[in-house]
Design a protein that fits this description.
With about 550 residues, the chain is of the alpha/beta class. It has 16 helices and 27 strands. It starts with a helix and ends with a strand.
Length: about 550
């Protein structure tokens, strides 16, 4: 089936499911979920949807059904076979690590390398190591809760690790290797301040500290460890080419002094910078493959100097492009500042893209894993549209999420001549045997927008009956007709508050919601999927997931 024909069929399916009015956003989401190979041409796909949808929506429902039947009806549209993750160059063994900094909650961008490493470890029957990169007590200050949260989030993603390493507990190991470098003349203690150091570095010249002999260098290194130097008075530098093309790698700093480290696990004063601790651990832990973001290219150059000094072989590297989510904040520093300013309620605020926030909204770990695996280890930058992420999740939850009525802008109407006193409706369209019941009177609540749109017309109260809509409406029949369908709840309802990413909506829900369970993923019909967060005797609090 050609792409245009495929799009046409998806629009017709969506239209027949929504009273003849297909929704472009829903069509795009479903199409990309079933056919991830179309993501690379999403702009063209979106344009084709927009050009076709108005014509199809203008047809009457009978013509839409007829055209859909001509295309094979609801028969499952064949998906393109997924190829899986591309092969890596693996020889005898495979060992990878995921090295989060415990200075904030994991977001989906952080989790991407963890998911890929885990998938590759399973593919090659290898080893997956969780290494907490927590040796920056000055800027990226670790907090005890984040060590716990990261492990909770990884377990939620169904990620298992074979070994856990905490870098801050290995400071003596790093000191040992630093001393070896000092003794061999491949590292030196530099006491130059930034004003003196940077002009020399930029011009490719050595500072006087570099020329001091190894015995005095070793003495200065031990003075650093004894805290005889204060913060910013001395750093340990790794010797490199002074004329290296990238100025940032010239004699890069490997250790610094922190007078008052704000670290929950260690109060030592001399701390390795990221490139030293990470490189030493990668060798000692036997890491064979590294999956890292392209922003680490300079870090890799620095680390390779260290490997050359020790005569070690550097691991194979796979570069991952930058990852972002539209309409969701991923930056930990931005989230932290937003919490401080009360812009966000916490690390699980629905506006942010942390795993805790996505879990709170009802996203399934399998959906998050699948979209990351389908994207694969691409080196190009990637922005995932929120509707794409929602489409993956919808595919996971649509067949199990119970349906409920919810009215976001309640308006009361009276229905005269209605003789129906009780009705039972399936709790899921594919589970006709399990029903929810409603006791009926003469008063109902409908959405005020529906009232304004259809006032004076014959409409159908979904799954119940037809009425001529007014503030005092008239029952017309129970027979299903080709008239607009609207949501409703009877006069006995439960107040519902739905937390959206950018607002809060209060409304009325059907009384059967009181039988739901906390953490249940439900669909408020024609509103969206939600996660039930709290149930009291007389109210429901839900977190909006997506449409």
């Amino acid at each position: 089936m050609e792409v245009s024909e495929l799009i046409r069929k998806y629009i017709l399916i969506n239209a027949t499911e929504h009273d003849g009015k297909a929704v472009a956003k829903s069509v795009l989401g479903k199409l990309l979920a079933d056919h991830p190979e179309l993501r690379d041409s999403v702009l063209d796909v979106r344009y084709k949807i927009d050009t076709m949808i108005n014509e199809i929506n203008a047809w009457n429902p009978n013509k839409q059904k007829f055209e859909l039947e001509k295309m094979g009806g609801y028969e499952q549209i064949k998906q393109v076979e997924k190829q899986g993750l591309p092969d890596l160059d693996v020889k005898n063994k495979f060992v990878v690590r995921f090295a989060p900094n415990p200075d904030g909650a994991l977001h989906l961008g952080n989790a991407r390398p963890a998911i890929l490493c885990n998938e590759y470890a399973k593919k090659y029957n290898g080893k997956f190591i969780l290494r907490f990169d927590d040796t920056d007590p000055k800027i990226k200050k670790p907090e005890i809760r984040f060590y716990k949260w990261i492990k909770e989030d990884l377990k939620w993603l169904k990620i298992k690790w074979h070994q856990e390493i905490i870098a801050s507990k290995r400071l003596n190991i790093y000191y040992k290797y630093a001393e070896e470098l000092v003794k061999s003349g491949k590292a030196y203690v530099c006491t130059c301040n930034d004003e003196k150091w940077k002009p020399l570095r930029n011009s490719g010249k050595a500072c006087h500290c570099r020329e001091i002999d190894e015995k005095l260098q070793l003495k200065n290194w031990k003075k650093m460890l004894a805290h005889k130097f204060r913060e910013k008075e001395a750093v340990l530098r790794i010797k490199t080419e002074l004329d290296a093309k990238n100025h940032a790698v010239r004699d890069w700093a490997a250790f610094r002094i922190v007078d008052k480290p704000e670290h929950p696990l260690s109060k030592k004063k001399v701390w390795p910078l990221y490139n030293f601790a990470s490189a030493i651990d990668d060798h000692l832990l036997g890491i064979t493959h590294i999956l890292r973001g392209q922003e680490h290219s300079t870090n890799e150059t620095k680390q390779r100097y260290l490997y050359e000094h020790f005569g070690w072989k550097y691991p194979d590297v796979t570069i991952l492009g930058r990852f972002s989510l539209s309409d969701m904040v991923l930056s930990k520093s931005t989230i932290r500042e937003g919490i401080k300013e009360r812009k966000y309620s916490g690390w699980d605020d629905p506006k942010v893209g942390t795993l805790r926030a996505l879990r709170r909204r009802g996203f399934q770990p399998e959906a998050l894993r699948q979209i990351i695996v389908d994207i694969g280890p691409k080196s190009s930058d990637i922005t995932i549209a929120s509707e794409n992420l929602s489409a993956y999740n919808r595919r996971m939850i649509d067949k199990t999420a119970n349906r409920y009525f919810f009215i976001p802008n309640p308006k009361r109407i009276e229905v005269k001549n209605l003789t129906i006193r009780k009705v039972s409706i399936p709790i899921h369209p594919e589970n006709k045997s399990k029903k929810r019941s409603f006791s009926l009177g003469k008063y109902f609540y409908i959405d005020a927008k529906d009232f304004d749109k259809y006032k004076g017309l014959e409409i159908r109260l979904k799954d119940l009956c037809n009425i001529k809509l007014n503030e005092v409406s008239i029952f017309t029949s129970e027979k299903v007709k080709a008239v607009p369908k609207i949501q409703w709840v009877p006069s006995k309802f439960v107040p519902v508050r739905v937390t959206m990413p950018n607002k809060e909506i209060k409304g009325y829900g059907e009384i059967n919601l009181l039988k739901a369970k906390v953490n249940e993923i439900a669909q408020f019909e024609r509103f969206g999927f939600v996660r039930i967060e709290k149930i009291t005797r007389d109210s429901i609090i839900a977190i909006f997931g997506h449409e």
